[in-house]
Design a protein that fits this description.
Blueprint: E1 3-6, H1 11-22, E2 28-30, H2 41-51, E3 55-58, H3 66-71, H4 73-93, E4 98-102, H5 131-151, E5 155-160, E6 162-164, H6 179-193, E7 197-201, E8 207-208, E9 210-212, H7 213-226, E10 233-235, E11 241-242, H8 243-254, E12 259-263, H9 278-284, H10 292-307
Parallel strand pairs: 1-2, 1-3, 3-4, 4-5, 5-10, 6-9, 7-12
Antiparallel strand pairs: 8-11
Length: 308
């Protein structure tokens, strides 16, 4: 079975590739933007001609943190919409057996009841800074269901919560950083430079749920192997933490002894995020295994090591 992993050289993709290897899969391709630019239809055709995939795990995306989302709404909408639309259509045209679409927690309405249930996905508009990205990724779900209904095409759709772990490019590209790599980097910089304070966005009141990237990769491959339904499925832990408590936790783990200042002129983002993860457990047996503190320790240790 030839498995194409789009974005397979990226943060999540590299972990998915490792899970495929450990489960004995040998014939797969980790697509890289340097070789195949999926915003270009000709590159998609060339990719399919070169590899002839039978299964696709679609991870490639233009994605970033809240600041990047605020500054690049058009690029986020266009890139993610065009990549997903053309890739899924080409998969159908060429007889791909299964398409695993990876959506986003950002597709949920701004004021979704806690915990987020898949049935609530259409009950409102996403949080404003996330909307262009979230809606573009949401169209992948609509397209997959439409192609299933009309053509019998086996497209599934997963909704992972915020991911964290070693290798996140947000450590090196500040404008694309999500909250955990952004905090770790800021606290490390402040500690090394002897600063007395670290400034963080918002007021610390929102909550977030975090899934260790290795667990997410396991869940994606579990779904590839065992799930063939039309319903979107959440991937997460079902546990939330406030941004304020997260900041204090990371501050202590890094060993920064200064103050945290909250810049309330900056956006908070969505007020709360916490998933109902019962369907992933029921449909394909996925349960997150990595303790949050252990995952943070691994992530901080990795960053400390590469910083030297």
């Amino acid at each position: 079975m030839r498995i194409l992993v789009t974005g397979g050289t990226g943060f999540l993709g590299s972990f998915v590739v490792e899970v495929l290897k450990t489960r004995g899969y040998k014939n797969f391709l980790a697509q890289s933007k340097k070789v195949y630019n999926l915003t270009k239809e000709d590159d998609i055709s060339r990719l399919f001609n070169d590899f002839r995939p039978e299964v696709i795990i679609h991870l490639a995306a233009n994605v970033g943190g809240i600041g990047y989302n605020r500054d690049n709404p058009a690029s986020l909408f266009y890139d993610n919409l065009i990549i997903g639309t053309n890739l899924l259509h080409k998969a159908y045209e060429t007889g791909v057996e299964k398409f695993v679409g990876i959506g986003t927690i950002c597709s949920y309405p701004k004021f979704t009841p806690i915990p987020f249930r898949e049935e609530d996905l259409w009950n409102g508009y996403p949080e404003e800074t996330n909307a262009p990205y979230g809606l573009a990724k949401k169209m992948l779900l609509v397209q997959g269901q439409a192609y299933r209904d009309q053509h019998g095409f086996n497209a599934i759709h997963l909704l992972p919560v915020n991911l964290y772990g070693p290798g996140d490019r947000g450590f090196f590209e500040a404008e694309r950083g999500h909250v955990i790599p952004d905090m770790i980097r800021k606290f490390f910089d402040a500690k090394i430079n002897g600063n007395e304070e670290v400034v963080l966005w918002g007021d610390g009141s929102p909550t977030r749920e975090f899934l260790y990237v290795g667990d997410a990769a396991e869940g994606i491959v579990d779904a590839m192997e065992r799930y063939n339904g039309r319903e979107p499925v959440n991937l997460g832990t079902g546990k939330e933490i406030s941004i304020k408590n997260l900041a204090e936790k990371i501050k202590d783990m890094v060993g920064f002894n200064g103050r945290i200042l909250w810049d309330t002129s900056k956006p908070n983002g969505q007020p709360r995020r916490c998933l109902d993860v019962s369907k992933a457990r029921s449909y394909f047996g996925f349960t997150a295994k990595t303790d949050f503190d252990l995952g943070l320790d691994k992530t901080i240790g990795w960053y400390e090591k590469i910083r030297g």
